[in-house]
Structures are given as C-alpha cells and as structure tokens.
Design goal:
alpha/beta
Length: 228
C-alpha cells in the first residue's frame, strides 16, 4: 500500500500537503475577474489565482471525486465571500448572507456524482458561521434550457451560449428578496457563467451584491496580490 499523493503538487503525502494547504489558507482574497468585465457581471472577489497546485486541487475536487478537498477549498471560498461582503453595500441588519451557487447541469451532476459549486458553497457557509458571520446556501438557480459544452469556446461564444440559460426557481423568489445575495462558484475565467447567473437573479428582482470564487484565471486576476 502506497501513501496517497497530494492532489495539488503530486509530491507531498496525503490528499492535501501542508504547502498546498498554505496556498489556500494564506491567500489574500480580493477583487478579481476579467477585464473588461462582461455586461451584468457583479463585483467578483477570489481567494487565489488559478494555476499550478490550485488548478490541480479544483480539478481533483470537481472531476475526480476528491470530496475531502471541499473543506479546504470551501475555506478559501469563504475568504473570498468575506472580501466581497466587506466591500459591498450593507445588507439588512442581522440578515444572513445567502450564498447562491452557479448550478451544474443535470448531465454534469450525473457524470461527476456531485455538484461541485453547491458542495463548496455549503463548506464556505459552515466556515463563515464558525467565524461568526451568519450564512446559508440558497440553491435557487436552475437551467432553463440546454447549453453546449463551454470547452474551447471564446469569451463571446460563451456569453452567447449561456445567455438566458438560467432561471430562478419560482418558489424560492420570496427567500431572496431583501437579503444580501452573493453568487459563488469555484472559478471565474471569462465571467460568462456568473454574469448569466446574475442576470437570472436580477430578472427575479433579486440582484446579487457580489460574486465570490475560490480562484480566478491568473491572466485576468485584477488584484489578488500574490504576484502570479
């Protein structure tokens, strides 16, 4: 029996070695996202640039069933949510943050066996509550139509592919009104998914105050401040 290798660097023992854990826990969360941002994209905050071990960790969690990574990745997402919360307009006094994950398609959930963004949102909400910030997960978005695989599409093609693809479940609209809503996802690249999710929320009369992700593509990271 050989010890498991770190899913991030492939070197350290265990699913997440101390060095790769530090990449997540020591990251300076802050504003991120594409420049220029697509129409309708709310302010985005991320915990770390996307690349290297962080990229490997996100892929391992999303595509390879490394579900134990949800807690450390969720902690990084919580840091991005706190950054977005601190920068946003104040919500209703005492109202918990509502973390709205960008949903996976039903086909993706079947193939992966889980919804990665939803799992990370739940881990982030637990971390926020432990730190004294009331938060709950509100999986209110659903796909209204089929979309093509985003892989290989340009930024403009991704926006056309996703436009009008998401909607808010009618029975959940009342849950959102008057609450501070933060969209969450594992990664922001072109911003197409987050912009479409924000459009759907605005159409339901519940505009999000911000969006938060674990990582942002390094070439598009605005000011996460890690020098990468």
């Amino acid at each position: 029996m050989l010890p498991a290798r770190c899913a991030g660097c492939g070197e350290g023992a265990g699913q997440l070695c101390p060095a790769c854990r530090a990449l997540l826990t020591c990251a300076a969360a802050g504003p991120a996202g594409p420049e220029p941002p697509p129409d309708g994209l709310p302010p985005v905050h991320a915990a770390t640039p996307y690349g290297g071990p962080v990229r490997n960790l996100l892929i391992a969690h999303k595509e390879r069933g490394a579900l134990r990574l949800a807690r450390p990745l969720g902690s990084a997402l919580a840091a991005a949510v706190r950054s977005a919360d601190a920068a946003g307009a104040p919500g209703a006094p005492g109202a918990p943050l509502l973390l709205v994950p960008v949903p996976s398609t039903r086909r993706s959930v079947r193939e992966r066996g889980h919804d990665p963004a939803l799992r990370l949102a739940r881990a982030a909400a637990r971390e926020l509550r432990r730190a004294g910030r009331p938060a709950r997960v509100a999986p209110v978005l659903r796909h209204a139509r089929r979309v093509a695989d985003q892989a290989g599409l340009s930024a403009a093609e991704r926006h056309r592919n996703l436009h009008g693809a998401l909607t808010v479940r009618p029975r959940t609209v009342a849950l959102l009104h008057g609450r501070p809503v933060v969209l969450v996802d594992d990664l922001v690249t072109t911003g197409a998914s987050l912009a479409e999710a924000a459009r759907a929320l605005r159409a339901a009369g519940c505009p999000p105050r911000a969006a938060a992700t674990v990582a942002a593509t390094a070439r598009r990271a605005a000011s996460i401040g890690l020098g990468r």
